[in-house]
Amino acid sequence: xxxxxxxxxxxxxxxxxxxxxxxxxxxxxxxxxxxxxxxxxxxxxxxxxxxxxxxxxxxxxxxxxxxxxxxxxxxxxxxxxxxxxxxxxxxxxxxxxxxxxxxxxxxxxxxxxxxxxxxxxxxxxxxxxxxxxxxxxxxxxxxxxxxxxxxxxxxxxxxxxxxxxxxxxxxxxxxxxxxxxxxxxxxxxxxxxxxxxxxxxxxxxxxxxxxxxxxxxxxxxxxxxxxxxxxxxxxxxxxxxxxxxxxxxxxxxxxxxxxxxxxxxxxxxxxxxxxxxxxxxxxxxxxxxxxxxxx
Length: 295
Hints:
Elements: E1 4-10, H1 18-32, E2 35-41, H2 47-53, E3 60-67, H3 69-79, E4 86-90, H4 96-101, H5 107-116, E5 118-127, E6 130-132, E7 135-139, H6 140-151, H7 162-171, E8 177-181, E9 184-190, E10 192-196, E11 218-223, H8 228-241, E12 249-254, E13 256-261, E14 266-269, E15 272-276, E16 279-292
Helix pairs in contact: 1-5, 2-3, 6-7
């Protein structure tokens, strides 16, 4: 009988190369579990997506991802709804999916997940012509993502965001945009929107604590404030109270969100800059299969 194929996607710059340190032992343990380990080291944007897109033709039965949320996003886009299990070795910067599911990066934790193969079907969502798993941010954090994209070179840490956040806080002019939820306009003057499938964000930040990755709904946080002091207040709330609130904010839920703007409003998808509005976001219930820790 032919061995099952496990495709290992290695982002060599994630976590300052930590994935490379884990790789040999994971290959060894996979082979002991009767897998053939097919290692793909990404070398350009979109490489992980291409490797995932060929999964069916190559008879891949498992993905092991050594990377961060951006690499996971590429694999989700490449699979395009095919239920090939994804096992995450969280070696990126934010690791929001791993935090949401309490997935550790220790080698023994990773091997136990692969051995048990207990999976959980998570929602994903369409964003225009692509897919996402975590969140879409429009406005302030989209601009932070744009500045990060402009200046990024190699491995980044959470501290790498300090200057882009500060520069955005000092220079961003808060263009306004429209928000529709399930076909109804709910805001015509938004300055910041987070559409989330998970409660976790980067570092200690929690914007939408009630979001769940498998409830078939998108959680939406809207702010209409243009004041820089209010953004600082929201940031403090997200870090300390783990919830953003106030008279300038609204929290909603829905299955489809449309964001449109007369000006250029930047957006980020799963933590990476993704151009400018408009954006049509639609939930895809239980469309991604993720290997979780055995219970």
